[in-house]
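Q&A FORM
Asked by: J.P.
Topic: structure of Phenylalanine ammonia-lyase

PROVIDED:
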Amino acid sequence: MDRPRDSFSSLLLSHWAKFTANVRAVNAGSWTCVVDGRNLDLASVVVIARYGGSVDLDPAAMRAITASAEAFQASLSKGLIVYGVNTGFGGSADTRPDAIEELQHALIRGLHYGVLADPTRRSPLQGALSLSNMAALLDNTALPIDHPTAATCMPEAWVRASMLVRLNSLAGGVSGTRLATVQALAQLINKDVVPRVPIRGSISASGDLSPLSYIGGVMQGKPSLTAWVGSRLPDGSRPVERADRALAQAGIEPISLGPKEGLAIVNGTAVSAGVAALVLHEAHLQAALSQVLTAMTVEALCGTDESFDPFLAKVRPHPGQIESARNIFAFLADSQLVHRSDGTEESSLRQDRYSIRTASQWIGPVLEDLTAAHRQILIEINSVTDNPLIDTEGARILHGGNFQAKVVTSAVEKIRQGCQTIGRMLSVQCTELINPATNRGLPPNLVVDEPSESYIWKGTDILVAALQSELGFLANPVASHVQTAEMGNQSLNSLALISARYTLDALDVLSQLAAAHLLALCQALDLRAMNLRFLEAFAGEFQAITTHAFSGILRDAAQLDDLQTRLWGALKMHLGRTAHMDSSKRFTYIMESLQPLILKSTPSSVETLSAMKSWMAQCSDRALELFSITRSQYRSQPDACPFLGAAARRMYSFVRGRLGVPFFGEDEIKTPDPAGLSDHSGHTAPSVGAFISTVYESIRSGALYDPVIECFRDAAR
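REPLIED BY: S.T.
REPLY: Here is the structure written out as tokens.
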């Protein structure tokens, strides 16, 4: 079935295709982002921000920039009063300065108020380290309570995204800046000179004034500022230099600001919008992953695909519900673990629990919010957001409020609440998977060893509770905490950048939760596959033992076949109900539980009792032996793929194969003898947390999303 062009899945696949094509081209040295003020897409922002690449100004955009600058100068020469050019700023706009070019420099300087730990300039307090000189003692000996630089400085990717969005805004050709000034900003991107920008200090009212002022200051080569420049070091970091030295090292001439140019650089939503674009990229992929994980959970819990039948969405046709149900239904194709009910079962839940049965109704609104956020952010990164603006055709200078970033706040608040929604679903799914009361026959704590001797996954249950609690806190709105600022002038401020920052925090927490759940799912699917292998091995022998024991008592072949069928069905049911028991007692208990069924189906006689006693002993002994053999063999060569649906097969193969995270029990994570570990490998002994971290790192790098996207491509075919 064709999907609407604006559906979540269509947006996802289109974005991923552009994104991966651009990443390949960057690595081949053959991609340049053409900036024209109107056609910047999400993929280009992410690639320029995180993977490198260069930018070129579109020739038509350059002509528009020049025309705007000329029109602005013409208006200024007529003596017109223009805000921020020959007036003061904000609540001081009633002042009329004479030095209009110096005014732009003063604006930039005045906005350098952020707290920024600078590793290039830290010098300890002077004085002897003595008990009497407590200030020096504290300053020189205290361990930091966090990473000072990371706690106060934006990551490079945020700043690169911000510079690109600001460049695109200026390329709109209505800001009155000279072409050389706009080209200087493009040079920072192309030469990979990245200003160090404080992480806090913006209320995103008159745009992101202070963060953008640090970019403007580096463009001027201010020695009071610093920037990353040069090649990356082995640990992934880059050298930090004073702005003047960084420009010189990169071969970039510092700029001298003309009238309005300082204001044009700092007055806008570029930082909020740039970070929001990075947020949206991750959010799309997390929402996609959640649908795949839900399908895997259905399989791991031996649930049904009935909950995702198209009829249900047809009669409640919310677009997100229709889409998520269709995706999950497709992901479950060919699964041998999915239970397809005919309505005749007894002594079992007729329907799945809420965490999977209502998943499409739960995920659906999040997908709708993400598509709405996508539209909002895409428009914003292609907008002109400074003030005032020059209408070249109408020969007008207009004063307005395009810098108000409330639309960005609207987008990222939806995304952050969506993180909590998805996290709640995944955390409940994971908990139900680990809990033997809800996991339909899996052992407690997903252990492959004896249940009384291993509690491996119990800690993960606690982990997901902790992560989901944090997501719940982070879901609280930021936008309701507005404070009036700047002499009462900025009485409405969007707090967009603050909200975007916390949304990235939420996405990171959700990534950890998804990593834990994915690993638990792979463990559960292996346990299901191992159990099926055992049943395959035991089925023939069970039939032979039963035939040998009761063929002399039930001479009617049909009666014997009926007994075998009912005994086998009851055995599988009791196998699921006794997963909490150690195998040494489990199979004896199961065979004893089948006695009433035998007694109801056979004549009452001493011969029957004798046959039943022999049958019980043989079946329990052989079942225990085969279970032990199967478990040992499966642990040495685990492979659940033959039993899995299309999506689960891809994800399981990635985790077990590409990431090398094993199906594990106590033996795999026992503390090794340190003598057996290499002193120089840098690797630690394995732990549950280390395995989860491996999956988490693949999410954060984006590697895990490749098989996720393949699942969606399969579903779209």
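FOLLOW-UP: DSSP finds 27 helices and seven strands in the chain.
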